[in-house]
């Protein structure tokens, strides 16, 4: 029998006025303690320097009592995933991250372990993008070319991390973030959740909740949008 999925999808790892991951400490510890996690397997492929990136995450989590290992250091990545207590897929460039996951043939193992094995999954920014249906709604430049934009599909909707509201007073006349997301919705007919900085989505089985102290903006599959308050029940988005 498949175990319930257990996800924390962060808009970002950094928030103004806080240290790295500090704003999400309570959310991370809630997930880790609930799953009896002591060691986190970090997936650093969204940035070029994998060692440095892993060290950054290790330095953040070690004072809280968690060890961090880099997946890139494991000679048998598939086995390391099977033995992992939790995985954390960090932010950076979403195209580079997804291309690497395809190249290393990690998409299916991660998907299987998370959706059927209940492996706790933490994503931040790019790591959140690849947890969704596709990376169509990332803000990143396509500096790399993955074989497909289809991603892990741990949740059946798309997310736009780092969502920014249009500035009413701006003199900029180019497309706004809203217009670009609305374009995706028009072509694909799928909902997109705009996650503002400091917010995240917690998924426990078939239940999803908006965490943080700011609203999220839902761009509806049929058009239009809606502001969702902190602690909003997002479980309806899990219905395929």
What's the CATH class, please? Answer: Alpha Beta
Estimate the global geometry from the Cα principal axes: globular
Mean pLDDT: 95
**Count of β-strands:** 11
Number of individual domains: 1
Rg, nearest Å: 17 Å
CATH architectural name: 3-Layer(aba) Sandwich
Helix segment tally: 7
Helix content: 25-40%
Largest sheet: 7 strands, mixed
CATH superfamily: Class I glutamine amidotransferase (GATase) domain
How is the largest sheet built, in terms of strand order? Answer: 3-2-4-5-1-8-9
Low-confidence stretches: none
Structural class: alpha/beta
CATH topology: Rossmann fold
Amount of beta strand = 15-25%
SSE succession: EHEHEHEHHEHEHEEEEE
Give the N-to-C terminal Cα separation.
20 Å
Outline the structure in words.
With 240 residues, the chain is of the alpha/beta class. It has one domain (6-238): Class I glutamine amidotransferase (GATase) domain (Rossmann fold, 3-Layer(aba) Sandwich), CATH 3.40.50. The protein has 7 helices and 11 strands. It has helices spanning 25-34, 50-61, 77-83, 94-103, 107-115, 126-129, 177-188; strands at 6-10, 39-43, 67-70, 87-89, 121-124, 158-160, 192-194, 200-204, 207-211, 216-219, 225-228. A hairpin with a 2-residue loop joins strand 8 (200-204) and strand 9 (207-211). The radius of gyration is 17 Å and the shape is globular. The mean pLDDT is 95.
């Amino acid at each position: 029998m498949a175990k319930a999925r257990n996800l924390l999808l962060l808009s970002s790892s950094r928030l103004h006025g806080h240290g790295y991951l500090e704003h999400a400490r309570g959310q991370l510890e809630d997930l880790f303690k609930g799953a009896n996690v002591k060691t986190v397997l970090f997936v650093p492929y969204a940035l070029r320097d994998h060692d440095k990136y892993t060290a950054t995450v290790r330095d953040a989590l070690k004072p809280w009592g968690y060890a961090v290992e880099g997946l890139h250091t494991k000679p048998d990545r598939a086995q390391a995933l099977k033995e992992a207590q939790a995985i954390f897929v960090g932010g950076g460039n979403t195209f580079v991250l997804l291309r690497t996951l395809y190249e290393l043939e990690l998409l299916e193992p991660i998907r299987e372990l998370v959706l059927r094995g209940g492996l706790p999954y933490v994503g931040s920014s790019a790591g959140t993008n690849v947890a969704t249906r596709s990376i169509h709604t990332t803000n990143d430049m396509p500096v790399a070319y993955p074989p497909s934009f289809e991603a892990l599909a741990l949740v059946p909707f798309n997310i736009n991390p780092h969502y920014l509201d249009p500035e009413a007073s701006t003199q900029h006349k180019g497309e706004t973030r809203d217009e670009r997301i609305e374009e995706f919705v028009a072509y694909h007919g799928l909902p997109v959740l705009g996650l503002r900085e400091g917010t995240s989505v917690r998924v426990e089985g078939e239940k999803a909740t908006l965490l943080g102290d700011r609203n999220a903006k839902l761009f509806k599959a049929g058009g239009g949008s809606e502001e969702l308050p902190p602690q909003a029940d997002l479980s309806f988005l899990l219905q395929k």
